[in-house]
Design brief:
mainly alpha; single chain; binds benzoyl coenzyme A; two-stranded antiparallel sheet
Length: 317
């Protein structure tokens, strides 16, 4: 059996039946504790990823090459802040406050996507992030629109609409470089070289090494496995790179006629483990920036709380 709860509990049986019947689990439903912990872990990590993911791009707002590019980048980053808010709100339906989720992030107890621990070194990285990082994110998130936890699935519908714009603007931006001067094309290739492997890591460990996949697939929280989604991303991205005239930095990448898919090289899993355990190129910088921004915003939260308690006191009086 999948959880530690009492197998004969009729509430557990009703829960399992609901999942098996492909019905959504809603906040009012009884859920086993292990399910609550798993959804909360994934949603809070997802929310943190959206918010921390604003940092590498925020770095380039003041240096965008044109007003048009600057407006697009600003809108995209703002969307990501919004995605974080939808996801924190959806996660709060599980009885944990946003404050507690942020505390877990600051204490290093909650993770966020490994990809955001890499630096955005050139303007071409803005294109590569949109094309590859949002491209990888959307492959995963399209599948999450059908996740079994209702508030998560509904948040994903809106997020996917915006992510698809993000991916397209990234591709359009990198295309401008790839079709530009020799130096611009080199910048685009350099960005692809640096972002390709970290993008593949976004899908998590191989299915055989994935600690949570078994339960998450059983509960239909995850609809497709890490490896299936990663393969889909590779198959969709290789022709896009070809169209741009850029080369994917993988000597083992080739079309496999038999399987009808691309074979590709092995990810550096030691690097992945280092990055998700706090030792990537920018982990410390990303977290300390978030802690600082949170501290800087304390007066706003305090003021809102003070206003709210005054408002409630007036209502009682
Ligand atoms: N990075 O058992 P597994 C965006 C951890 S942001 C870090 O396979 P699971 C965007 C995993 O948490 C979109 N950690 O886990 C924003 C677990 O550790 P814990 C981000 C990772 O949950 C701005 C351990 O490794 N998307 O779109 O079954 C600009 C074992 O893994 C990673 C989401 O968050 C990783 N890549 O599957 C641009 C999607 N991979 O928790 C774009 C929602 C694994 O036991 N999340 N770990 O300490 C998911 O779909 C799943 O959580 C994952 C992992 C596929 C990521």
């Amino acid at each position: 059996m999948v959880n530690q709860d009492n197998d004969n509990d009729p509430r557990l049986v009703a829960f399992e039946n609901k999942v098996a019947a492909d019905q959504r689990i809603e906040p009012k439903d009884w859920i086993p504790d292990a399910f609550r912990k798993t959804v909360l872990r994934q949603m809070s990590q997802h929310a943190h990823s959206e918010v921390i993911g604003m940092q590498p791009e925020g770095n380039w707002i003041t240096r965008a090459p044109t007003l048009r590019r600057k407006l697009i980048l600003l809108a995209k980053i703002q969307d990501e802040g919004g995605h974080g808010l939808y996801l924190y709100s959806a996660a709060e339906t599980l009885g944990t406050s946003r404050e507690e989720m942020v505390k877990a992030l600051h204490e290093g107890k909650a993770k966020y996507a490994s990809i955001f621990n890499y630096p955005a070194l050139t303007w071409a990285d803005m294109g590569a992030i949109g094309w590859l990082v949002d491209g990888a994110a959307i492959v995963n998130q399209v599948s999450l629109q059908r996740t079994s936890y209702g508030p998560y699935a509904r948040a994903m519908v809106r997020i996917c609409k915006e992510e698809s714009f993000h991916q397209r603007q990234g591709y359009e931006s990198i295309m401008a470089l790839a079709q530009g001067s020799k130096e611009q094309k080199e910048m685009a290739q350099d960005a692809l070289d640096r972002w390709w492997w970290p993008s593949l890591m976004m899908f998590g460990p191989h299915d055989s090494d994935s600690a949570h996949s078994g339960r998450s697939m059983h509960w239909k929280l995850k609809r497709e496995s890490n490896d299936v989604l990663r393969q889909r991303f590779v198959d969709q991205t290789v022709p896009q790179a070809k169209f741009l005239g850029l080369e994917i930095p993988d000597p083992d990448l080739r079309w496999n006629e038999g399987s009808g898919r691309h074979d590709f090289g092995e990810i550096d899993w030691d690097e992945f483990q280092r990055v998700i355990h706090g030792d990537g190129p920018c982990n410390r910088q990303r977290l300390s920036h978030h802690v600082q921004a949170h501290e800087d915003g304390r007066w706003v939260r305090d003021a809102m709380r003070a206003y709210e308690s005054k408002r409630q006191a007036r209502q009682v009086a």
